[in-house]
Amino acid sequence: MQDAAKHRPSVGCQRAPAPSWMLVSAIILFGGFQVVVSAHKFYNLEAATMDLGYFEAVLWKISHGDWWAFSAIFQSPALGTDASFWLYPLAYGFRYLGGAMFLFFVQAVGTAAAAWGIYRAAVLHQLSPRVASLVGILFLLYPAVIGGSQFDFHPDFIVLPFVVWAYVYYQMDRRWGYYVCLFLAVLGKDVVLVSIVGWGLGLILWRRRWGDGAIAMVGGAGLLAAEVMWLIPTYLHGGTEQLQTAFYSYLGVGMGGVLLGMVSRFPVLLRHLILVGGPYLVRILAPVFGVVLLGSATVPAMLSLAALNAVSAFPAQHQLFYQYQVILA
Predict the structure, then answer these.
(1) Cα dihedral value 220, 202, 4, 16, nearest 10
(2) 3-state secondary structure string, 119-158?
(3) How far apart are CA 199 and CA 293, in angstroms?
(4) Helix residue ranges, H only, the chain
(5) Which residue, 8, 24, 144, 166, is most buried by CB atoms nearer than 10 A?
(6) Looking at residue 239, what is its pLDDT?
(7) Could you please report the per-residue DSSP string of 174-218?
(8) Is the pLDDT at 47 greater than 80, yes or no?
(9) Angle formed by the axes of helices 299-312 and 278-294, to 10°?
(10) What is the rounded distance in angstroms from the CA atom of residue 232 to the CA atom of residue 236?
């Protein structure tokens, strides 16, 4: 505990100065711009993105009583597609508070809350309020954030502020806020568990906080394994066969069967890793673990994240699975 406290900024438990007018203005302008542009494309029948149509369909079904809504777009139960329990409160907001406009507004608010958290994190690292505000503005100008939150809707932009504020609360040594934010983030998107595992690894490698790091790594990996190998296959039948195959359930039934299959059918596993699983895992893991392993806030880490962002900023981003993992990283 003494070692952990030594690494935390002393400013953590103090009241943070109010953000400058620059950050407040940037947040308002960013949110308004994102909502206006998205609404313009939507109401002019120019919104051609798949996910917005998917969420409109499943949220309408859920809000009309079909809590196990099946997506005709992804041929899978909606809950199994994103593992997002935020679908349920969002569904009733969608139905009664403005439809697609409600989703655009929620996305803008989530991004604004993340920018505010980035400002707080910068202050905790003893930057001046003016410089911290500039850091928050730079986050809003990040191309992957701008592109990802326009013309579409993704639970990632609900998860994002909870991830950022979990970090802020951890730095302030307010564990209740830290764990609550992590829990709410996990309810919002399954792949955030990869970021939590990366966070735990970073705590161990760079901060020597063994207990906190182990909890994050074991908890994140355990929940992800339980979801992929038990919850989805058991309770979300229909349309999940391809997902199960991608996660190696073809090796056996249940976790024990899969582990035994890895040994007895190793050549099959190796071929699948190289041809199918390898590229899939790289697309998910590279944005998180590439930054974590290169170090916390080092130049190589920042350059690697900038390179990943550049990939997500081009039209080819639609060919990159889990592009939003870049934003979470």
Answers:
(1) -90
(2) HHHHHHCCCCHHHHHHHHHHHHCCHHHHHHCCCCCCCHHH
(3) 11
(4) 2-7, 21-43, 50-63, 78-82, 87-96, 100-124, 129-140, 143-148, 156-171, 175-188, 192-202, 210-226, 232-235, 241-246, 254-264, 266-272, 278-294, 299-312, 325-328
(5) 166
(6) 46
(7) -HHHHHHHHHHHHHH-TTHHHHHHHHHHHIIIII--HHHHHHHHH
(8) no
(9) 140
(10) 5
Distance CA 52, CA 103 (A): 9
Rounded to the nearest 10 degrees, how much is the dihedral formed by the CA atoms of 196, 202, 203, 205? 150
- pLDDT per residue as tens digits for the range 91-134: 999 999 988 899 999 999 999 999 999 999 999 988 888 899 99
Residue 312 corresponds to which tokens in the numbers above? 């997500």
CA atoms within 13 A on the CB side of 322: 21
Tokens coding 86? 């935020």
Q: What is the gyration radius of the CA atoms in the chain, in angstroms?
A: 20
Chain position carrying tokens 């099959």:
268
- Is the pTM of the predicted complex or chain greater than 0.90? no
* Tokens read off for 284: 């998910």
